[in-house]
Design brief:
Elements: H1 2-7, H2 12-20, E1 24-28, E2 31-34, H3 35-40, H4 43-57, E3 63-64, H5 66-72, E4 85-89, E5 96-98, E6 101-105, E7 115-117, E8 120-122, H6 125-135, H7 138-151, H8 156-165, H9 172-181, H10 189-200, E9 207-213, E10 219-227, E11 232-236, H11 240-243, H12 245-248, H13 253-268, E12 275-279, H14 281-284, H15 287-297
Parallel strand pairs: 4-6, 11-12
Antiparallel strand pairs: 1-2, 3-4, 5-6, 7-8, 9-10, 10-11
C-alpha cells in the first residue's frame, strides 16, 4: 500500500515516477507491485492481488463475495478477469458499482460463518459458488463448481441447501442448470470447458474418467472422455501435462511426449476403440473448431448445435437443465 511505502520514504511523486519507469505496476489506487513480479503472474494471481489490495484499501472491513471470493478460495478463473471487486453491503444503500467495487446489497453482509483468506474476509465456499452460479457466465460457473466438487470442498447437496436457505426463487433456473451439469469427475478446467462444448454442439455426454482394459485384464488407460456408442476416446490435453513437474514425475518433456504416444497407440489398438480425438485449450474454447475435431473421430450430434460460438465468451449459451428449478420458498431476492 502507498501508506506503507511512504514510511519507507517513497511519496506519491516517487511512486508515479517508478511506474513511468516501469519499475512498479499500479494494481489500484494506493497499491503497487514490482513490475517483474506482476509480469510473472497469471490472470488468477493478478486478480487475486487486486482483490486483496481493494479489501486492504477499505477503512472498514468488507465481506468479499461472488467471483472475487471464488478466486481467493483458489477456484480457477477462465476468461477475462473481472473488472470489479465484489463485496456484500447492507441493504440500506442498495446494490451499486463504485470505486472499483460491485456492491451487492444483502442481509448477510456480515455473515458469522465468513472466512479469513489471506487476511481478507470472504463468504463461505458454498455461498460463494451459489453467487457465482447466479451472476457469472455458465462456463465460468461450471469450471469453478466442477473444481470444488473434485476437491471435495462442496457437494451438490450443500450447494442446493445454500440456495434454498436464501428463501428466493429468483435465479433458480441458473443455479439448477449448473448443479445438473456439474461433476466431480472433471479433473481440470480444460475438461469442464470441453464438456460445455459437447453440449453446445448437441453431442451426447461422454462417460468421464473411463478405464480401458486389454484382453488380459490389464488396465491400459483411464481416458478423459469415452463415447461407447461411437467407440471414440476424447482426450483434453493442456500444456500442463508437459510442463508441470508433478505431472512429469521426473521425466523430460521428450519422454512425456514419447509416453503419451505409446499410451495413445495402446488405446487405439483396443478392439472397442474406433476413433481417437485430442485437443487443447484453443480448440476447447471455440466450438467451431471442437466440433470438426470430434466429427473426424466419429462423434456426431444427436441434435442441432446450440450456437457455433466460443462457449467461454457466450453467457447465454448454457445447456438447458433436465431438472426442475432448485426448489426454494418464496421471499426477498438476495
Amino acid at each position: 500500500m502507498s501508506r506503507d511505502l511512504a514510511a519507507l520514504g517513497l511519496d506519491d511523486a516517487r511512486l508515479r515516477d517508478a511506474c513511468r519507469r516501469g519499475e512498479l505496476v499500479r494494481v489500484r489506487r494506493g497499491a503497487y507491485v514490482e513490475a517483474g513480479r506482476w509480469a510473472a503472474l497469471g490472470i488468477e494471481e493478478r486478480y487475486r492481488l487486486t482483490v486483496v489490495a481493494a479489501a486492504a484499501s477499505c477503512r472498514t472491513r468488507v465481506l468479499v463475495s461472488h467471483v472475487s471470493a471464488a478466486v481467493l478460495h483458489g477456484l480457477p478463473l477462465v476468461g477475462a478477469p473481472p473488472r470489479l471487486v465484489h463485496v456484500l453491503v447492507p441493504p440500506a444503500g442498495g446494490s451499486r458499482q463504485e470505486h472499483g467495487f460491485a456492491k451487492h446489497a444483502c442481509d448477510d453482509h456480515d455473515r458469522p460463518d465468513a472466512l479469513d483468506v489471506d487476511g481478507v474476509h470472504v463468504t463461505p465456499l458454498d455461498a460463494t459458488l451459489v453467487d457465482v452460479c447466479l451472476t457469472e457466465p455458465f462456463v465460468r460457473a461450471v469450471v469453478m463448481t466442477d473444481h470444488a466438487l473434485h476437491q471435495g470442498a462442496v457437494t451438490l447437496e450443500s450447494l442446493a441447501t445454500e440456495f434454498a436457505r436464501r428463501g428466493t426463487r429468483r435465479g433458480s433456473r441458473k443455479v439448477a442448470a449448473v448443479l445438473e451439469f456439474a461433476t466431480p469427475l472433471a479433473h481440470r478446467p480444460l475438461e469442464s470447458i470441453s464438456r460445455v462444448g459437447f453440449r453446445l454442439l448437441g453431442l451426447p455426454d461422454p462417460v468421464l474418467q473411463h478405464p480401458l482394459f486389454d484382453e488380459t485384464g490389464r488396465r491400459v488407460a483411464i481416458v478423459d472422455n469415452w463415447w461407447p456408442g461411437f467407440g471414440v476416446v476424447g482426450e483434453s490435453d493442456g500444456r500442463v501435462k508437459y510442463t508441470d513437474p508433478e505431472m512429469m514425475a521426473g521425466r523430460t518433456t521428450a519422454q512425456v511426449l514419447i509416453d503419451e504416444k505409446d499410451r495413445e497407440d495402446d488405446i487405439r489398438a483396443l478392439p472397442e476403440v474406433r476413433g481417437f480425438a485430442r485437443w487443447g485449450w484453443d480448440v476447447a474454447l471455440d466450438v467451431r473448431r471442437l466440433g470438426p475435431v470430434l466429427a473426424r473421430a466419429g462423434v456426431l450430434p444427436h441434435g442441432p448445435p446450440r450456437r457455433a460460438s466460443p462457449p467461454s465468451t457466450v453467457e447465454n449459451d448454457r445447456p438447458a437443465s433436465t431438472k426442475s428449478p432448485v426448489p426454494a420458498p418464496g421471499g426477498p431476492a438476495r
